[in-house]
Amino acid sequence: MTDPIITFDNVTYTYPGTDTPALDSISFSVLPGEYVAVLGLNGAGKTTLGLCVNGVVPTMLGGELEGTVTVAGLEVGEYAVREMAKIVGMVFDNPEFQMSQLSAAEEIAVGLENAGVPYEDMIRIIPETLALVGLAGFEERSPLGLSGGQQQRLAIAAVLAMSPQILIMDEPTSNLDPIGKQEVFDMAARLNKEKGMTVIVIEHEVEVMARYADRVIVLNEGKVVLNGTPQDIFSRVDELAALNLRVPESAALSTLLASKGLWKGETPTRTESAVDAVNTLLEARRG
Amino acid sequence: MQGALPVSLIPGDSVLHRVHPLPKMIWVVLYVVVAFMTQNIIVLYGMAVLALLLGVIGGVVKPLLKAAFIIVPIGSSLLALQLMAPAVEQPWTQIAQLGPITLYEDGLYYGLVLLGRIVACLLMALVVVMTTHPSDLFTTLAKLKVPYTLNFMMAMTLQLIPVFQREVGIILSAQKSRGMKGNGFQAVLPSFVPVFVGAIERVQQLSISLESRGFGSAGHKTSYRQVRGKASDWFLALLAIGVAALLGTVSILRGGWNISGLLVVEPATAVTVWVVSATVFLGIIALALILSFRKS
Amino acid sequence: MAKKSPLPTPAEARAASEHAIVVSDARYVYPNGKVVALNGVSVTVDHGELLGIIGQNGSGKTTLTKLLNGLLQPSSGTVVVNGIETTGRTVQEMSAHIGYVFQNPNHQLFARTVQAELEFGPTNIGIEGEELAERVARAVEFFGLKDVIDEHPYRVSFPIRKLVGIASIVTMEPSILILDEPSTGQDHQTTSIINNLMRKLAEQGTTVVCVSHDMPLLADVVERVIVMKDAQIIADASPREVFADKPLMARTNLQAPQITEIALQTVVPLGGPIALTPAELADDLGARLSSKG
Question: What is the band of B184 on the pLDDT scale with cuts at 50, 70, 90?
Fold first, then answer.
């Protein structure tokens, strides 16, 4: 039985100057190498959750945090964000707002410089990381001249350069066009499957999450209301509808057919499995 | 895209590009110091020519002259006004009379001094900016113990100028699309709020992103950008300091080293200079006014 | 440039014009002369239509919309909006006829209260007094802004701010409304609200043009979609037709909604519908699976 890499133990957090807690008695854990999707309406507490993992909450933003957050065996409140940055990398929803340097290489160097990584290592790590995110040769390019998808991949690179064990992405594709979205989701999937990185993605694109996630956590008004496999969570169409959340259309389809007594198997979480299942049903009728 | 500033690094690999930023920064400082210590127009325009030569060496002459175009309106207004009212102690020596307007010899000389100062310092500053990579500049400042955060903020401001130009453009389009009339300052004013809000949002998000990368925390920091100085760079710096010290001392000893006494100026010359400068200056103002009213 | 004759009111212009928008072979080349952003585009839109323009960044869709409200003037060809040719007209003149809601509401909003924002546009085009108050009241009702009317625009939540951004253009009561990426980055709840608003506006007679790069979003609300790529229109059809056109979808990097993908690979070859919603496909499958055998 592997130890979880992230544990939230009865965490309640209130932002400074507010009365309602942003997170309310949250408990869950994440195993190493898991791909976790976090869903919920805007304001449900998803971003706050992410910021608790790397310590920005409460160290940088203040406020009151009750309960414990443990990451890779370390209790987050006890360590500076700088230390956590070596374990947890976080990428945010606006690619341009994460850029601050005059070249892509320098953007990646920011984290490395602050971690005191020697120059000799930096000149090796930077090109490696750029290649990893598909931006090989982009060292001298100005970040502001890149497309949204490229900027977001650069933001991921800037974080990957520190070799974190956990990657958190907070609505990474909401400001991207379909090409950019594809690039980022493919990237996340590769990092998870090929490098065994623990990936937490906060998103609204449920079809993509259904395809890649090992686990789905649903937040509502600061509380964890659902926590399970995509199979499990996305078959609860009514519950999610009550929370004003979408289910993947494949799941909506199977649930509708099930209510007519026409669907027997699992809830399909991918287009392919839905197509196969439907075609099987159609053939069975014809045969 | 190194920012949409009219003045920025012109990529290149000239001798001048390869000089360490610090000597170059020292030259600019020395130029300013000497320029304001002397009133010798030979020295001043000599400095300007030297800066121009450096521009040639750096391969940036064309952009240099383009950026230096601002000297034309400044220079013409300066000469025209100084000829009419020299910024020196009275008594003034009259050199010509154009109807109600009196032109003074002192004004011609002093106008040239002021212009010379501006031209020399501007050209030198431009040459340095155009041949120095901003990041190297900031790395140098960091080595001079400028606080990391301050340095970083300056570097970021450079990055953000084109961004804000873009934002203001979008906001103006949005307001025009809501029927907002008028150009000029009154039109720009409503855009301040959205730009401000956008800037705040941006800085908030950026600071969380940077914090998450461990930015700005105490402790040893390394530097990715390495700036190497050669012996020749330091030699040049010392040479410059030496020459500057010499010129500066002589100028002080000679009370400014004003050589207007050695020059003979024909009245016709003064009049010509005045007419040309005044025309150029007024012409530019008229053009600016016409253009600003034409924009719908 | 000599000023042209004053424009008729939107209602007059609309009544006098056959179509809402007529673009004839419009070309746009950037001032530097190098980039052709729009390469000979022609399209006709009728009054009261609800359509979408879709394309990747760089496809020309933004240029086309800017030609519609006068932010850009065509290098050649003509753009006629509400019966008025845009050539030589200012954006301000056109703003009474065609409204443009920018993607980021922050780019529009600057007044002290939501009320002031709603009044800004109509005031600029000469609406005042009782007419102004009525228009604002209608918008407040339509968009559900009663609770925030006295709030500072930047104090309200972002989804409400988006609504205020749209409302502040709707109070100008233009005949045509362009919305730029109205739902990008929004959650499901806000997207539904905005989609409903667009439908209602079209029902009331406003021509609504929704620009987006999100196909599933558009499919939910428009009947007609114009697909752009490489500075040209490469398709002008219903969403279903576009989704069914495999080569077209591949060329444009567009993604059909998941349910449409499923339908295309299951019932469509059997003559079934190119479903846009799970309910649609479920109904068809329901019929097929229970009727046979």
Answer: low
Say if the Cβ atoms of B171 and C107 lie within 8 Å.
yes
Is residue B129's pLDDT more than 70?
yes
A267 residue type, one letter:
T
Helices H / strands E in chain A, number of each:
11, 10
CA distance B121 to chain A (A): 27
Q: Which residue in this structure is represented by tokens 């608790």?
A: A52
Beta strand spans in chain C (E): 21-29, 36-45, 50-54, 76-81, 84-85, 98-101, 176-180, 207-212, 224-229, 232-237
Q: In the structure encoding, which two tokens stand for residue C52, read together?
A: 């979408």
Using the predicted structure, report yes or no on whether residue C199 has a pLDDT greater than 50. Answer: yes
Residue B126: both structure tokens together = 């431009």
pLDDT of residue C39: 92
Q: Is B194 in the C-facing interface, judged by CB distances under 8 Å?
A: yes
Chain B partners within 8 Å of C119 (Cβ): none
Burial of B207 (0-12, 13-18, 19+ CB in 10 A): middle
Q: Which residues contact A199 (CB under 8 A, 6 or more apart)?
A: A34, A35, A36, A166, A167, A168, A169, A188, A191, A192
| Whole-structure pTM value | 0.83
Low-confidence residues of chain A, pLDDT below 50? none
Give the whole-angstrom CA distance, residue B172 versus residue B192.
10
Query: Residue C107 and residue B194: Cβ atoms within 8 Å?
Result: yes
Chain A contact probe: residue of C262, C268, C281, C290 with most A CBs at under 10 A: C262
Contact list, B153 vs chain A (CB under 8 Å):
none
> Could you identify the residue written with the tokens 């175009």?
B69
pLDDT tens, position by position, C232-283: 999 999 999 999 998 998 888 888 889 999 999 999 999 999 999 999 999 9
